[in-house]
Design a protein that fits this description.
Length: 223
């Protein structure tokens, strides 16, 4: 496959590789790109998966499902994020996490078994990719720590402020992209009406400004 058409060589997984090296790697892995429409499952809890995915375009939400069918949104994933790692590496371990496209999404899928056994054949290219995979595992630990910190806040306002600060750090901008109110309420684990009410109050007090798809903390009034 020709990865340069989607700028795949610019994804974090392939940092340090040229476009030609990225194409060589993808061809050797029998990798493929698949499109998912908004609202569709990218991976579903309990379903077998043998591939490691890389988000090429769009946004995906990680959703935890309990035995009663109740859903809890963990976090959102954007371009460059990896998905399906745990289920690909531990195929016999049933996971209660689903991945749902919150926009139209493109995902690059790499067969894990081929990746695992191609080191000698791919040489330096394989080493670069495996290094980035290990960095992803470390990043997942950071995300889990952020979620724990977020839910430990005593008030909804404190959660909102910390949520935006975390988004600012991840996205590297002050005006951050946010999901819709339903998804945001799930991420904050709060009532949607309560969230909408608190956001309106915070906006009136000059603490935040926002439109439908972005939000910004005012520098003078972060608390």
């Amino acid at each position: 496959m020709a990865g340069y058409h989607l700028d795949l060589q610019l994804l974090p997984l392939f940092e340090g590789l040229t476009a030609a090296e990225t194409d060589q790697f993808l061809a050797g892995m029998n990798a493929s790109v698949r499109r998912y429409e908004k609202g569709k499952y990218v991976l579903q809890a309990g379903k077998k998966n043998e591939n490691i995915g890389v988000i090429v375009e769009g946004e995906i939400q990680v959703i935890s499902e309990d035995v009663h069918g109740n859903e809890s949104v963990s976090h959102s994933l954007e371009r460059g994020a990896l998905v399906g790692i745990t289920t690909a590496i531990l195929p016999d371990k049933a996971m209660n996490l689903s991945l749902v496209a919150t926009t139209n999404v493109l995902v690059l899928w790499i067969p894990y078994n081929i990746l695992l056994t191609s080191g000698a054949r791919m040489g330096r290219i394989h080493g670069v990719v495996m290094k980035h995979l290990l960095q992803v595992f470390a990043w997942k630990t950071v995300i889990m720590a952020e979620k724990i910190q977020l839910l430990s806040q005593k008030t909804l306002r404190e959660r909102i402020v910390l949520y935006l600060q975390q988004k600012m750090w991840r996205q590297g901008v002050d005006k951050v992209h946010i999901p819709g109110r339903i998804q945001m309420a799930k991420e904050l684990e709060c009532n949607r009406s309560a969230l909408t009410r608190e956001l309106s109050i915070m906006k009136a007090e000059g603490i935040i400004s926002f439109e439908d798809d972005w939000m910004q903390l005012c520098v003078e009034k972060r608390l």
